[in-house]
Write the structure tokens for this entry.
Amino acid sequence: QVHLVETGGGLVQPGGSLRLSCAASGINIGDYTMVWARQASGKEREWVATILTDNSFSHAASLEGRFLVSRDNAKNTVFLQMNNLKPEDTAVYYCRTIDGIWGQGTQVTVSS
């Protein structure tokens, strides 16, 4: 059975940083394109970043280069480094496999 578990969320002040982790079990994460998405309260879920099996990646243009997706296949984990966080980054952050297996999400709150 496949599980994805996101961790690393929390409360951070504007301008701060967080590093989210998405740990997988039941699959070899190195065989999968992985995606980060987020959903703010009352809004639709939106795409944040994608990392392919060859470690090439892309990020939503709206993030203005503040986020960086990476992976460590030896740890079976994908990461999302988030810098210069803004209140509008407040959301539940999810990881998923390209074929639609989702984690439970981790809450990120950016507030002073």
Notes: The CA atoms of residues 48 and 61 lie 9 Å apart. The longest strand covers residues 18-25.
